[in-house]
Amino acid sequence: xxxxxxxxxxxxxxxxxxTSASFAVGLASRGYKTAVIDFDIGLRxxxxxxxxxxxxxxxxxxxxxxxxxxxxxxxxxxxxRDLFILPASQTRDKDALTLEGVSTVLEELSKTFxxxxxxxxxxxxxxxxxxxxxxxxxxxxxxxxxxxxxDSDRMLGMLSSKTKRAEEGRDPLTExxxxxxxxxxxxxxxxxxxxxxxxxxxxxxxxxxxPESQAVLRASNSGDPVILDKESDAGQAxxxxxxxxxxxxxxxxxxxxxxxxxxxxxxxxxxxxS
Amino acid sequence: MSLSNKISKILDYFQRPEKxxxxxxxxxxxxxxxxxxxxxxxDYLAALQQDLLNVITKYVAIDREAVKVELExxxxxxxxxxxxxxxxxx
Lengths: 274, 90
Ligand SMILES: Nc1ncnc2c1ncn2[C@@H]1O[C@H](COP(=O)(O)OP(=O)(O)O)[C@@H](O)[C@H]1O
Ligand SMILES: [Mg+2]
Fold this sequence. Notes:
The structure holds two protein chains of two kinds. By secondary structure, chain A is an alpha/beta fold.
């Protein structure tokens, strides 16, 4: 039986697809057979981030409509043998995803995969609801910014009531907070909500902090998920997050402003005085 | 510009700007506490507005725009503000 992970947020543009791609790569490179599914019907993007856009023939909706079988639609990742991508369809038909169809696909994948990563679309409509419905774990991607935190809180509400686990009264899914696009420098300046602010408000276990990083854009330019850029801060932060997800105890990094001892000293003084 | 004005401008310049992150946190704590409690904003506001309008028009001729109902969420409680603009009553 596969473990189903939904990458969700409510708000768009916070880093769900970036996270889905890196998480899927991270899990698969640890030897787990992993499938990553793009639930953003109409706006296919995961294929670009995974660098397989030119190999898409069939998609998620084709499989649901029995126009292709799952094996035809799954694309094997170019880097890792045990990783497969199921791209979103570009249809504009909002009802293309059905509960039954999604259920069938996930069940079939569950037979042979260890992990299924579901990249949720933004919003709280059907696509987002279906992406979370069958999940065993949720990674709530949040930016240190008011609207993102509020939307994440709404998603937490939905995760605890509108999932299969909740409806069947089973153990609730496990929730993880992933704070992304974090800038310790701006936090130090007082321009950005801090890790502890967000943690206090959302009150779910912290999986990791991904710094705001130029490596992310470089990664999407080349179609190699940022976790493969092992020199980069964001890449390392994703590696850590995957390790924590698998139960390892890894200290948090990239949450303090680096260098500048003078600034730190000044800030220390300031704290002493106030 | 007067001298004292100038001095205060200069002082302002050296003061650290207000930390907006604190403001963000406080606003979030208030709104999220409310949204968690009632799940959503009360949906009786529109109906309440209509009822108020009906009652008031028994006595004074006013139109729909004259009745405003607003809800402001504070920490631990909400303020319901009714604003009725009456026409000149000579
Ligand atoms: N840690 C990060 N640092 C810098 N830019 C980021 C980071 N994470 C995401 N981005 C950028 O933010 C944008 C939205 O990311 P994406 O993963 O597509 O979000 P979503 O799937 O939630 O809409 C992209 O342009 C991406 O490059
Ligand atoms: Mg996306």
